[in-house]
C-alpha cells in the first residue's frame, strides 16, 4: 500500500486552483484521490473517484443543491490537490491510507474505542495452545472471533478446556518438566511437557478445536464418532468412553446455540441506526450459520447521510480485519459497491460479495442487525442524558435510577400517592407503587408528600434521584423527611413545576437554590424530567379515580342490609350502573338472579327514601 502512495506522489501529483473554469480545463479525468485543504495546507477532506474531473466539479454546484456539510466544507477549502492512480483499487488503498494518516475533519472516521477479544491458535507450533488476544494479526495463526465480551471468550475457553485437552501453558515454546502439572491430573491436558505425547496425536486435538471454533459442530461430531469406533475396534474402551463424553458435551453445546442462517455460510451483517446526528453500526458475525458475536461502532456526524456513513465504515473496517467472510450484508446501499467489493476481495484473497438485501432470509438478518443498532443507540443516548443530568442538576452521581412521586386528592378526600421508577431513562414497571395516605387529614399537600416519601424510604433500595411533582414547597417538605432519615446514602432531590402563562418552560428546583434552574424548552434533561413527571401524575390520577369509583359504589349499596359483595356484583352486572339500580322498580329488581322479593322491596324503598331526602 505504501508503494502505491510513493509512486503516485513522485509522478502524478497535481495542485490546482479552486476556480471551476480552471478545473474544467485542467483537472484530470482518470481515477485517483482528491484532497481539499484549508488555508494552512491541512487536509480537511479526502475523497476517491473514478473520474476526478466529474467528481470535483460536482462540488461547485449552486449552494442550494449541495448538502449542508459540503457547503461548510467548501467554505473552509482554500486549495485542492489530486493524486492520480492507474486503477480504482489503487485509489481505494490510497484514500484509506490518507484518511488514516491525516484524519481529515470532514471525513467520517472509524474510531473504535473497544478492542474485542479473539482466540488465537497457531498451527505452525508443534504443540499450540489456545490464548486470548485483543487484536487479530496477519501472522499465519488462526484467529477465532471476535467475541462480544471478555466474559464470553472466557466461557468459550472454559468449555474447550473441559471437552478437549490442549495444553494450558502460557509459554509459546513447550516447557520441559519432569512431571505434568495439575491440569493433567484433572484430565484437562494431555501433558505433552512430560508425557511424551506425539505431535500427530496432539494435532488431532488441535483440528477438533478448530472445527469447534469454526462452528462446524456436525463435522466435528462425525470425526469424533469415527475416532470412538476406531477405539472400540482396538478394544480401547477407556478412550472410547472419553470420546463418547466429548461427543455428548459438543451436542449439548450445539443444542444451546441458535441457527440464524440455514445456509450455514460465513456472513457479516451490518446494521445502521441514526438519530439526532448520531450513528451506530452493529456488525453481527455469523459463522457457519451460527451467530458467533457482535461488535458496535458509534459515529457523531451531524450532516452525514446513512449511505455515506455505511460506505466509510466498510472501507475503513475491512482492511484491518484478519478474517473477511464471503458475504457482507449491509443495511444501506453504497455508491461504488462493485469497486469496493473488488478491492476487499483483493484484500481477502478470495471473492467477497457485498449485498444490500431487503427481502428473504438475508433481509431478515439485516432487520435483526438494524434492530440491535437502534436499541443500542437508544440506550446510548439515554445514558448520555443521564450523565448530562448529573452535571446540570448538580447531583452526587449519575441518576441511573430515578423515581417520580406525586399525590392526588379532591379537597383532601381519599388522598393517594404514586411512585414510578425509571432505570437509565426507561420505565421500570416493577418499581411502580401506589399508596393510600393514612395519617394526613384535610387539605395538606406538603404533609401528604412527606408521608409518601417517608413510607417509600422505609423500603430499600432507594433511587439515585427522587423527582417531586410540585414546586419549591413540595421539595422542602421532601427534603426534611430525607434529612431526618439516618440510614444509608440519601438520594438526590429535584422538583419540577408547570410553567406559568408568561413562562416558556417548566421550572426545575434543586435544594439550596432559590431560583429554578434555567433549562431551555428543548433541553434533553428537561424532557426526561417532564416524561417522568407526566408518568407519575397519570398514575396518581388513575389510582385516585379507581378508588373513588369503588368508594362511590360501596358507600351506597353497602348501606342496604342484606347486600353483600355477590349481590352487589349481580345488581351492577345486570343493570350496568349504579344510577340504573337506583331507578329500578321492584319488578325489575326481581329479575336479577339471587334477589328475593323482600330484598327487592328494601332496595327500591332505600333509593326512594334517598330521592325524597
Structural write-up:
The protein is an alpha+beta fold. It folds into five domains: 2-102, GIY-YIG endonuclease (3-Layer(aba) Sandwich); 120-256, no CATH class; 267-380, Nucleotidyltransferase, domain 5 (2-Layer Sandwich); 401-549, 2-Layer Sandwich (Nucleotidyltransferase, domain 5); 558-612, DNA polymerase, domain 1. Helices cover 45% and strands 18% of the residues. The protein has helices at 2-11, 20-26, 52-57, 68-76, 88-102, 150-163, 182-185, 192-195, 199-213, 217-233, 237-256, 306-317, 337-348, 360-392, 445-457, 472-484, 524-557, 565-575, 578-582, 586-590, 597-612; strands at residues 13-16, 32-37, 43-49, 79-84, 118-121, 131-133, 142-144, 267-275, 278-287, 290-300, 327-330, 353-355, 401-410, 413-423, 426-427, 433-436, 465-469, 492-497, 507-509. The strands form four sheets. Strands 13, 14, 15, 16, 17, 18 and 19 form a seven-stranded mixed sheet that branches. α16 (472-484) links the parallel β17 and β18 (492-497). The termini are far apart.
Topology at a glance:
Blueprint: H1 2-11, E1 13-16, H2 20-26, E2 32-37, E3 43-49, H3 52-57, H4 68-76, E4 79-84, H5 88-102, E5 118-121, E6 131-133, E7 142-144, H6 150-163, H7 182-185, H8 192-195, H9 199-213, H10 217-233, H11 237-256, E8 267-275, E9 278-287, E10 290-300, H12 306-317, E11 327-330, H13 337-348, E12 353-355, H14 360-392, E13 401-410, E14 413-423, E15 426-427, E16 433-436, H15 445-457, E17 465-469, H16 472-484, E18 492-497, E19 507-509, H17 524-557, H18 565-575, H19 578-582, H20 586-590, H21 597-612
Parallel strand pairs: 8-11, 11-12, 13-17, 17-18
Antiparallel strand pairs: 1-4, 2-3, 2-4, 5-6, 5-7, 8-9, 9-10, 13-14, 14-15, 14-16, 18-19
Helix pairs in contact: 5-13, 9-10, 10-11, 15-16
Amino acid at each position: 500500500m505504501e508503494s502505491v502512495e510513493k509512486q503516485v506522489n513522485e509522478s502524478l501529483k497535481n495542485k490546482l486552483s479552486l476556480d471551476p473554469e480552471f478545473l474544467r480545463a485542467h483537472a484530470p479525468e482518470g481515477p485517483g484521490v482528491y484532497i481539499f485543504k484549508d488555508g494552512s495546507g491541512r487536509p480537511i477532506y479526502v475523497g476517491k473517484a473514478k473520474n476526478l474531473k466529474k467528481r470535483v466539479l460536482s462540488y461547485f454546484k449552486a449552494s442550494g443543491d449541495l448538502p449542508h456539510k459540503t457547503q461548510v466544507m467548501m467554505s473552509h477549502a482554500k486549495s485542492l490537490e489530486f493524486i492520480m492512480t492507474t486503477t480504482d483499487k489503487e485509489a481505494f488503498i490510497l484514500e484509506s491510507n490518507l484518511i488514516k494518516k491525516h484524519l481529515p475533519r470532514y471525513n467520517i472516521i472509524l474510531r473504535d474505542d473497544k478492542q474485542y477479544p479473539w482466540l488465537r491458535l497457531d498451527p505452525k507450533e508443534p504443540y499450540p495452545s489456545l490464548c486470548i488476544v485483543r487484536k487479530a494479526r496477519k501472522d499465519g495463526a488462526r484467529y477465532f472471533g471476535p467475541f462480544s465480551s471478555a466474559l464470553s471468550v472466557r466461557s468459550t475457553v472454559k468449555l474447550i478446556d473441559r471437552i478437549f485437552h490442549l495444553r494450558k501453558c502460557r509459554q509459546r515454546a513447550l516447557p520441559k518438566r519432569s512431571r505434568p502439572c495439575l491440569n493433567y491430573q484433572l484430565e484437562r491436558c494431555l501433558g505433552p511437557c512430560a508425557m511424551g505425547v506425539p505431535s500427530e496425536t496432539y494435532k488431532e486435538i488441535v483440528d477438533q478445536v478448530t472445527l469447534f471454533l469454526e462452528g462446524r459442530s456436525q463435522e466435528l461430531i462425525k470425526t469424533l464418532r469415527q475416532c470412538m469406533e476406531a477405539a472400540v475396534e482396538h478394544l480401547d474402551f477407556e478412550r472410547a468412553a472419553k470420546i463418547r463424553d466429548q461427543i455428548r458435551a459438543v451436542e449439548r453445546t450445539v443444542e444451546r446455540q441458535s441457527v440464524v442462517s440455514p445456509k450455514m455460510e460465513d456472513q457479516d451483517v451490518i446494521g445502521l441506526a441514526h438519530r439526532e446526528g448520531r450513528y451506530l453500526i452493529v456488525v453481527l458475525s455469523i459463522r457457519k450459520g451460527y451467530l458467533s458475536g457482535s461488535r458496535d461502532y458509534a459515529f457523531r456526524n451531524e450532516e452525514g447521510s446513512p449511505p455515506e456513513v455505511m460506505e466509510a465504515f466498510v472501507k475503513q473496517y475491512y482492511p484491518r480485519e484478519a478474517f473477511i467472510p464471503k458475504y457482507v450484508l449491509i443495511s444501506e446501499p453504497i455508491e461504488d459497491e462493485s469497486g469496493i467489493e473488488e478491492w476487499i476481495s483483493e484484500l481477502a484473497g478470495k471473492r467477497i460479495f457485498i449485498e444490500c438485501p431487503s427481502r428473504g432470509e438475508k433481509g431478515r438478518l439485516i432487520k435483526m442487525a438494524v434492530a440491535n443498532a437502534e436499541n443500542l443507540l437508544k440506550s446510548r443516548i439515554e445514558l448520555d442524558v443521564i450523565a448530562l443530568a448529573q452535571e446540570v442538576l448538580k447531583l452526587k452521581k449519575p441518576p441511573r435510577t430515578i423515581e417520580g412521586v406525586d399525590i392526588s386528592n379532591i379537597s383532601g378526600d381519599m388522598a393517594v400517592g404514586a411512585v414510578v421508577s425509571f432505570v437509565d431513562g426507561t420505565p421500570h414497571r416493577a418499581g411502580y407503587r401506589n399508596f393510600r395516605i393514612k395519617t394526613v387529614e384535610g387539605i395538606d399537600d406538603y404533609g401528604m408528600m412527606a408521608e409518601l416519601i417517608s413510607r417509600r424510604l422505609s423500603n430499600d433500595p432507594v433511587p439515585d434521584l427522587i423527582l417531586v411533582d410540585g414546586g419549591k414547597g413540595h421539595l422542602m417538605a421532601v427534603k426534611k423527611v430525607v434529612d431526618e432519615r439516618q440510614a444509608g446514602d440519601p438520594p438526590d432531590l429535584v422538583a419540577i413545576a408547570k410553567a406559568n402563562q408568561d413562562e416558556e418552560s417548566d421550572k426545575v428546583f434543586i435544594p439550596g437554590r432559590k431560583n429554578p434552574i434555567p433549562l431551555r424548552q428543548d433541553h434533553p434533561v428537561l424532557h426526561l424530567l417532564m416524561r417522568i413527571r407526566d408518568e407519575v401524575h397519570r398514575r396518581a390520577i388513575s389510582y385516585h379515580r379507581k378508588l373513588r369509583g369503588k368508594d362511590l359504589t360501596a358507600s351506597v349499596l353497602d348501606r342496604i342490609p342484606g347486600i353483600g359483595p355477590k349481590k352487589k356484583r349481580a345488581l351492577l352486572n345486570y343493570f350496568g350502573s349504579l344510577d340504573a339500580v337506583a331507578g329500578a322498580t321492584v319488578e325489575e329488581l326481581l329479575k336479577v338472579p339471587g334477589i328475593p322479593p323482600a330484598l327487592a322491596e328494601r332496595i327500591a324503598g332505600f333509593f326512594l327514601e334517598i330521592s325524597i331526602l
